[in-house]
Write a structure and sequence with these properties.
The complex is a heterodimer of chains A (about 425) and B (about 240). Chain A has about 425 residues and is α/β, with parallel strands linked by helices. Chain A has 14 helices and 15 strands. By secondary structure, chain B is of the alpha/beta class. A six-stranded mixed β-sheet of chain B has the order 3-4-2-5-6-7, sandwiched between helices. A two-stranded parallel ribbon of chain B has the order 1-8. In chain B, strand 5, helix 2 and strand 6 form a beta-alpha-beta unit. The chains are: A alpha/beta (about 425), B alpha/beta (about 240).
Amino acid sequence: MNKMNQTSQMMTGNLAAAWGARLADVDYIPGFPITPQTEIVETLSKWCDSGEVNARFVTLDSEHSMMTAAGAAAATGARVFTATSSQGLLHAFEVLYTVAGWRVPFVLVNVSRALASPITLEPDHNDVLAARDSGFLQIHAETCQEVLDSILMAYRIAEDPRVCLPAMVNLDGFYLSFTREPVIVPDPQAVKTFLPPFRPAHLGFKGSAPRALGPAVFGGSVYSYFRHQMHLAAMNGLQVHEEAAVEFERLFGRRYGLVEAYKLDDAEDVLVMTNAFASKGKAAVDAARAEGKRVGLLRLRVIRPWPAEAIRQALQGRRAVAVLDQNLAPGQGGILYQEIAACLYHGAQRPRALCSFIGGLGGKNISEGEFRSVFEQTAEAGARGTGIGPVLLYTEGEHREMEQLQYLAHDLKTGK
Amino acid sequence: MIKKRLNIRMSGLGGQGAVTAAHVMAMAANKDGKFSISNPFFGAEKRMAPAESYCRIGIERIYDRGELVFPDVIEVFHPQVITMGKSYTMPFYSGIKEGGVVIINSDMPLLSDEDVQRLKDLHVALFYIAGTEIALEIAGTELSTNMTMIGSVAGITQCVSMDALDQALQERFGKKFVASGGTASLDEAIKKKFAKKEMLLAKNLATMKRAYELGVEWAEKNHVELRVGNPAVAA
């Protein structure tokens, strides 16, 4: 039975995110609403008003301004939290790169929602992965508990002097944002041990000693130097994450890896997934194992920095690997598939076949049948020794429904 | 039938509290020491538009998420879900598992003979409850309709206890009175507000309890046994 019963509360992913900011004892929260993220800033504004959170809450006129305010406040040495989603993240895009270049640590929560057009509210990862080259670190969460925990870890990693970069924590709209599941709220005193007050040596504001961040530089050599520094700092995040994970486990009893291995020990074929749909993937692994198939799942958690070595370790020697991307780069395929292929290339024992699947776009369900088909096609590819893809997952039933809609639209257009 | 997990799909209209109902059920299951997860689905957030919520309750960790395609129990909060097709799935009972239960809030039968036959073929039991009437009678507001939907499914399946539901309701809606630190008259006004809230809570609980009893009675009379537990132990 559920051992967490005594201390856990049923909480949405959005509320868990707000708790993360609250426990991190943030100083400044610039906010702007967007579905399915709104509950986060709504909750925090309420807590700021009631005094439960001792922070300055400010509503801005857009995500562009919001992200600028977040970066500028962090540059003064304040601990900053903000959240957005989808189109909002894209609206802030210019500033993401800018503030990352300022080397100001703060945490941004993104609630994944598929991008227009057409418009939808449900999740896929084209929004957050569009920001993969911005300089923000990225942690992608599978459960509501992991949302809260990852925010605390993100602050610690981002603020480490070896890193000093902003960090993004991603959770899926609906599948986590509005989903209630048991969450343990960590003890605030223990959080203070894990995450001491933010006292950056290189940031701060003093009227008598004005400073400029990110000024214009020409000729490329100065520019390259700073960009190289960003890359090296982000890569330091791998080690810093491991240190933070050890300390987190000591204080709170939960251990987070750069990646998560689910039933991988004896698995010959491995499915790679991220975020909340990885739960569905785990259920599919269990179902396939019940039929005698030796399959497992690798969940990517830290996406930036890219944990190439951990991924290689987990995937080497397998017969076949299927990367299930919940995103689509039109004209290319799955975004994470490319990155996984790149990091496996230099491994001596790379899998015999690497397959690419695209599923769950706009929150589309991935059915048991689709998972079964993914495992079957992957096993065949492994036996054959050549990969496949990108395979776009779509069921017969969904196709029939779509055809009906098209008939309807056609009839309306032609007036029949 | 004893199952490791019970999947409940609640189909209602915006404003009826279907999302809250699933939340309260999941909270109660958690208090009973079971695993649970609840989530809603809706498009634009507006009144009377289709709104669905899902609650999964089990004895093992739940890896399933999102839309509930194959429910054991379907609860229809409003006749329009059926009569006007305000549902994300057509027909509203699509995906219902064999041996499942359909609970409909209506004071009169709504299904066509064909639908009744199809449910019969699947050994799905059909329970009509005049939930809105019960809510009006006991709580004095149709806003408490969702309490009857919680009560009836809990009564029929025993998936959560009345005690846990009571606690969950208190946790979700109850707030302790805190003196304002302002004037005495302000404190008085706040006290009144809380007293009113307490009364509302009691009425909601009574509404839920009435539906629970109706559910228990109906399940016994019709030999409907759909339970959450360990099938191996039960056998």
